[in-house]
Amino acid sequence: MQVRFFIKMALVASIYVVLTIWNPFSYTEIQFRISEVLVLLCFYRKDYIYALTIACIIANFFSPLGIIDVVLGSLATFLACLLISKSHHLFGASLFPVLINALVVGVELMIVFDLPLLATIISVALGEFAVVSVVGVLLFHRLSQNPGFLELIEAENMMGKDL
After folding, report:
1. Per residue in 99-116, is it b (16+ CB within 10 Å) or e — as a string?
2. How far apart are CA 42 and CA 91, in angstroms?
3. Hey, where are the domains in the chain?
4. Which of 12, 34, 97, 138 is 20 to 30 A from 59 (CA-CA)?
5. CATH architecture, domain defined by 2-152
6. Is the entire prediction scored with pTM above 0.70?
7. Residue among 136, 44, 57 nearest 97 (CA)
8. pLDDT digit string (tens) for the chain, length 163 residues
9. SS3 for 157?
10. 3-state DSSP assignment of residue 89
């Protein structure tokens, strides 16, 4: 049973890394990371925090921002995933990566590329909101209505959680 779940974690991490590296907007001030949709898995099972944090570390090694993104960007993902796992509402949970990445990545982009802080924070927030809070919430709301999906991701008890 544990080997099977470890394989699922590795698959999720792999998908995150590939979607991030493949997307040309993953490392810009737009921050339109399609892979960020996967952070909402932490709403259903907190173990995905580890897979997504490791995936983010790997993906950020390809970032033009350098080691600052590997450290701070990955820390932002870890914190967002942790807060998502403690949330009781899917949409509310989706706002954690929006706010955290807007601030952290916004500061990173300002430092590395000398971009204006407020504009960068806003552009990162908008991209993250579009991906996680709009596409991600709609996608996971629909998927969570399928018991097979919840079984596949080995969702923990959904009592007290609202979509």
Report:
1. bbbbebbbbbbbeeeebe
2. 13
3. 2-152
4. 138
5. Orthogonal Bundle (1.10)
6. yes
7. 136
8. 689 989 999 999 999 999 999 999 999 888 899 999 999 999 999 999 999 999 999 999 999 999 999 999 999 999 999 999 999 999 999 999 999 999 999 999 999 999 999 999 999 999 999 999 999 999 999 999 999 999 999 998 676 677 7
9. coil
10. strand
